[in-house]
Amino acid sequence: MDTSPGTPHRMDPAGGCPHADNARLLERGAVAAVVLPGEVEGMAVLGHEALKEFLAHPEVAKGAEHFTELREGRIAPGWPLATFATVRGMTTADGEDHRRLRSLVSKAFTARRVEELRPRIEELTAGLLDDLRAAAERDGGVADLRRHFAMPLPMGVIGELLGVDAEHRDRLHHLSNQVVATDIGPEKALAANRELVAVLAAVAVARGERPGDDLTSALIAARDEEGDRLSQEELIGTLVLMIIAGHETTLNLLTNAVRALCGHRDQLELVMKGEGGVGWADVVEETLRWDAPVSYFPFRYPVRDLTVDGTVIPKGTPVLAGYSAAGRDPSVHGPDADRFDVTRPGRSGATRHLSLGHGAHYCLGAPLARMEATIALERLFTRFPDLDLAVTEAELSRHSSFVGNSVRALPVRLGTSHG
Keyword annotations for this protein (predicted)? Predict the structure, then answer.
């Protein structure tokens, strides 16, 4: 990679491990010019403090009308990142629209509602651990932890929250994977988006005919109320965002945490013994910092030319939030920022990382993701304390995306089962 000053960094559509490139870019500064797929010029904010400022800046917008090239018709149909810019929902809304959409969903994520989900998450986790052991027994002692545990847990939880029947969930996972891929061709991108919308529209029809105690039914009621609280396009857009954000992030978080602990057995031992007050919640926070489940999140747009950490970001530029880079920014996390350390000082999520966002668009599902991951990791390693990777880290195949940050599969040997 050319790191000479002013040379834009070409984002690799095939994804891969982001950390080496992030370190080189951070040496140049907290903000970098980038080239996105399709030769679209953009910027990335990488430094922790710069990103914190940018995410909460009052003159930074999320609405696609602020994306100059898109507004002027210079983005080709089937652009792989189009959904991030154009889906109608909270992540592309500003001001009053954002507050309206967020308020409709936020009731499902209050501290009380999340805590009420704990017994169900524990029940799902126990069943999936049985499934994981059965999968390993069928395949010579090796099972794909991502497929049999890390994916179905958050998909099961968000599926139940949204009222999505179980038969749709594998397909929705496949389609959401394609939507977040950055190396996908225009025809596949358009087809994946069309099918994802169609499946979720069918879910909405089913919930409209048979309302239940789920978020989709509540959103449909809001759509049908007088006062136009929610349009049909916003309803489907919200479901798209909830499915993707509601399981992809936690799936990557769990996968990355297991990889980190298997590669740092001393840290795992500390947590298993509970030494120094270190617990599973600390593993979750350190994983979020050290190997953020979302590497570069699209998009935000300055509504005027904006100077961030000495670099001008021109009005209307699509900007990536560089969460994986900020998590290892040595100016904030010290010279050992690239070391996985569950005992790291300042272990609360607010001070440790920005990986779940910051400001008005802070992740609504953060408490749920933290609870799911904490329960899942504790139960997994309590049941299988000798669990380890069945291949080397170098043999793991990475996601085809610079948005999601993880691996495609995680083959593990479970070792002795306790229970």
Answer: Heme, Iron, Metal-binding, Monooxygenase, Oxidoreductase
Q: Which of 222-236, 248-262, 269-283 has the highest mean pLDDT?
A: 248-262
DSSP class of residue 42?
E
Q: Which amino acid is at 290?
A: W
Please give the CATH topology (third level) of the domain spanning 9-413: Cytochrome p450 (1.10.630)
Strand duo 306-308 + 311-313: pairing: antiparallel
Q: Taking a C-beta distance cutoff of 8 angstroms, is the pair 38, 62 a contact?
A: no
Rounded Cα–Cα distance for residues 305 and 96 (Å): 23
In whole angstroms, give the CA distance from residue 239 to residue 384: 35
Map out the domains of the chain as residue ranges. Answer: 9-413
Helix (H, G, I), strand (E, B), or coil: what is residue 116?
helix
* Per-residue pLDDT tens over the stretch 49-102: 999 999 999 999 999 999 999 999 999 988 999 999 999 899 999 999 999 999
- What pLDDT, on the 0 to 100 scale, is given for residue 351? 56
Q: Is 268 within 8 Å of 380 (Cβ atoms)?
A: no
Distances (CA, A) of 49 to 120, 139, 228, 351: 38, 47, 39, 11
CB count within 10 Å of CB 4 equals 6
Tokens matching residue 83: 């959904």
Averaged pLDDT score across all residues of the chain: 92
Q: In this structure, what token pair is assigned to residue 60?
A: 């930074």
Which pTM value belongs to this model? 0.94
